[in-house]
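Annotated sample (chain length 477).
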Amino acid sequence: MHSPSQPSQTDTAEEQSPSLKRAMSKRHLIMLSLGGAIGTGLFMGSGEVISQAGPLGAVTAYIIGGLIAYMVMLCLGELAVHLPVSGSFGAFATQYIGPGTGYMVSWMYWLGWSATLGTEFTAAAILMQEWFPTTSIWLWTLIFAAGVLLSNLSSTRTFAESEFWLSMIKVATVLIFILLGAGAIFGFVPFQGYSSAPLFSNLTEHGWLPNGLIPLFTTLLIVNFAFNGTEMIGIAAGETENPEQNVPKAIHAAVWRLMIFFVGTIIVISSLLPYQDAGINAPAHGDGISSSPFVSVFNLMSIPYAEDIMRFVIITALLSTANSGLYAASRMMWALSAQGQLPKVFSKITRSGIPYIAVLVTMIGGLPGLLSEQFGADVIFKNLLGVAAFTMVIVWMSICWSQFNFRRQWLKQGHQLSELKFRTPWYPLVPILGFVCCTATGLSMAADPEMLSGFIGCLLFMAACYASYYWLYHPKK
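Output written by the structure step:
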């Protein structure tokens, strides 16, 4: 384990390698985080959580998931302000846990995001084909991939602006949904099936937990995964203007806004739809986009073109996720190269500060997801979801562990807490509780048959990362 008083491998590498540009502002950071988290999981998956856990169970699950995310982000804030480098999770784990773990965490995060790229493009292309049935899915896939690639290759500022506006579409849709839903709940907006204001009768009509206590915990993996993306603030810290002020503000703003958006959405859906009709397999729904509880609620408000509106929003959500995912994964690859754990070619940057080789190779890494069109979309999608969920859990665990060790070493060296520009509150409770909750979430994947193969595959990948690090980079005695 490295001591913070000694120059770390990361510090040395960053001094020797070309630096990325600090071109992001606080608004870019907040929207990058919101854009990474608000996606098809909310638009399509929220109803499934309600149908399994019940209305109040779903509300409780999202509150618990938000608190877990908040604990992890509080730990991230202390680390990212103290050491604002791109590829932060790997750098933190390298310095405060061990170099082998830092190497593994970096590759796990890269795997999680690169694995989802192809599926995001393919899913968006399938939705476009519903509008243009005579065009090929491959054509739309290539168009979307090219657009996201250009966004990431142009400049950090251009990427940040494109992600800002893609995320703004999603955020605006959620806000409009919550406001119109509140109007329907209190009788200001006409809603089919109710002659008077429904208020919140649906929330408790079948009891607090109609399916028992177990579904509350089994849906936590879905809920926790919904908050995946908030940690991108740490990835972007190395390219942010004035990180000492902007990173903590962005963490607080992003997590609490997500809590309001997610919990508000669940309350609206649960109040207006019977919980049995919220899930994607409910008989009240059709296939595809029409299975979204957002479409069901908009249709019952008699809003015209509800399916087309949500199809457009979900396409932008998919492209936003791919856009931010390519950014995050390429920065991890750049950081590995800057630390001397990949060939130096991967840390080459353009004049505008873009690690273009890392971006191009990461895009190629997303190509296996394109096979979902030929080899069973359901199987590949579910396993890639499991991979993405597990990698997120590993990264979040490493953040909590790194902060716990960092604070101990900081005080042991004679430093004062007042010297830290951002402090994780309630230490050591927050990092310990965050680590335990993330561990429990990760282990719950082993109990899910649909995610078991992804879970085993990730464990093998972790073992391969450790083995390759100690074989290639560990000093031989």
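Annotation: The domain at 22-472 is CATH 1.20.1740.10 (Amino acid/polyamine transporter I).
Annotation: The chain has 20 helices and no strands.
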